[in-house]
Design brief:
Helix content: 40-55%
Number of helices: 19
Largest sheet: 5 strands, parallel
Number of strands: 12
CATH class of the largest domain: Alpha Beta
Distance between the termini: 25 Å
Structural class: alpha/beta
Shape: elongated
CATH superfamily of the largest domain: P-loop containing nucleotide triphosphate hydrolases
Number of domains: 4
């Protein structure tokens, strides 16, 4: 049951507000004086407070209301407070709103407007509590994961990354190949490091090969080694990465770039642990845990005949799918602040811009953006201008599924200004309705 505490020395005011709230399924609590109201707050859950600015027949300064507001804010910093004020105290009420009060209403109040304000604040309060509970749960799970595993200092806050890391740590102890999929710049190499750091061979080397950074004719030599004279320019014998990783882990990034001959040799190593250097007939044997990564559509490459299906199934014993940064927005601000190294702070507008941007270049693009912003702002606050993000695309024309402005206004009117009710009428989420109200220039506050 939603509960609102009314603190007012006038019995008629308490009764009128109690009736208004009760008939709208809101449980009222009442107190005549500030001390009584604070005592009620201390005893049980209250979702919102409606408080007068003056108490006692001879008091008109508003000082009691100011003191009450600050007492509530000190003890319950997240509790919304609506102030009831006479016209003579309007300026004081506005100042308290700036200090954190949720809203103010002049006596006599408008029932519909007051009820709409209460409904909206109650929903926001409920959402805030749910979000706080979610954050607390996520924090406990993250701390538990960090206590049990070596996460290599990775920065994250999202449920999506928590699931990825839980899977990576779970499969780390299994001696099977792991395929990490995801877009460029999303952090696939960091996931490979975490798998290795929590594996049974974590004390042995982790060797990395970027198959996309090498010419096709050199990838085999890089992986398997080559004897002197095995190819043009091979003036000396060289050890391959499989030999260097013997007993440890080999991370093959951009595995989709491996040419057919290299794919065949890799399949053999995975099956038998055996290979030959280029230009040699001597068979060598290694024990290597292979982790591979790709941003390519390997299934499509198989259909096109460019990647071996049998190799794909060997590599893909366990797949760890890393979502793009745009699909895990809870990670954006923690990563941005990590990249700042406490050298600067983000303005509110900059934070909003970071969250609104789609990040096609993923974490790598975010890091480059923050590095550039640090250089431009010095040690000052980072603003939107310092970020240098590409301009947002022009607003798309209204979708056929979008309600027109007049439908939004009518729904709000019928709902008495209560956002959640209007949203349900339109078949939208509350956030979606807010976005449309902003697009149409409809005020979002009473």
């Amino acid at each position: 049951m939603r509960t609102v505490l009314i603190i007012d020395d006038q019995a008629a005011v308490r009764d009128a507000l109690s009736l208004l709230l009760s008939i709208n399924d809101i449980h009222p609590l009442t107190a005549a004086m500030p001390d009584e109201g604070l005592a009620l707050l201390a005893r049980g859950r209250v979702d919102l407070v409606i408080a007068d600015m003056n108490f006692g027949a001879d008091t008109t300064s508003g000082e009691e209301g100011i003191a009450l507001f600050h007492a509530i804010r000190d003890r319950h910093p997240d509790l919304p407070v609506i102030l009831l004020t006479g016209w003579s105290h309007l300026e004081t009420a506005v100042q308290l709103v700036k200090a954190g009060a949720a809203d103010y209403m002049s006596k006599p109040w408008d029932d519909a407007k007051l009820l709409a304000t209460v409904e909206n604040l109650l929903e926001l309060s409920e959402n805030a509590r749910a979000a706080a509970a979610t954050r607390a749960t996520r924090r406990r799970l993250r701390q538990s994961l960090e206590a049990r595993h070596d996460l290599r200092g990775i920065v994250f806050a999202s449920d999506e990354m928590l699931q990825v890391l839980e899977l990576a740590c779970r499969v780390a102890r299994a001696d099977v190949p792991v395929l990490i999929t995801g877009p460029n710049g999303a952090g696939k190499e960091r996931i490979a490091e975490i798998v290795h750091a929590n594996s049974a061979v974590r004390e042995r080397p982790l060797v990395t090969v970027n198959c996309g950074a090498l010419p096709g004719e050199l990838i085999e030599a890089e992986l398997f080694g080559a004897e002197a004279g095995a190819y043009t320019g091979a003036t000396r014998t060289r050890e391959g990465r499989f030999e260097a990783a013997d007993g440890g882990t080999l991370f093959l990034d951009e595995i989709g770039n491996l040419p057919p001959a290299g794919q065949m040799k890799l399949l053999r190593v995975l099956e038998t642990g055996e290979f030959e250097r280029l230009g040699s007939t001597r068979t060598r044997k290694v024990k290597v845990r292979v982790i591979s990564a790709t941003n390519a559509d390997l299934a499509g490459m198989i259909r096109a005949g460019r990647f071996r299906e049998d190799l794909f199934y060997r590599l893909n014993t366990i797949e760890v799918a890393l979502p793009p940064l745009g699909d895990r927005p809870d990670d954006i601000l923690p990563l941005a602040e990590y990249f700042l190294d406490d050298d600067a702070v983000l303005s509110d507008d900059a934070r909003d811009a970071l969250l609104a941007y789609p990040w096609p270049g993923n974490v790598r693009e975010l890091k480059n953006t923050m590095d550039r912003a640090k250089l431009l702002c010095g040690r000052d606050e980072i603003t939107v201008a310092h970020l240098g993000l590409p301009p947002a695309p022009p607003a798309a024309s209204r979708s056929l599924d979008d309600p027109p402005r007049d439908a939004v206004e009518e729904a709000l009117r019928r709902a008495g200004g209560v956002i959640s009710r209007a949203a349900r009428t339109l078949g939208l989420s509350r956030q979606a309705l807010y976005r449309r109200m902003q697009r149409y220039g409809i005020p979002t506050e009473g």
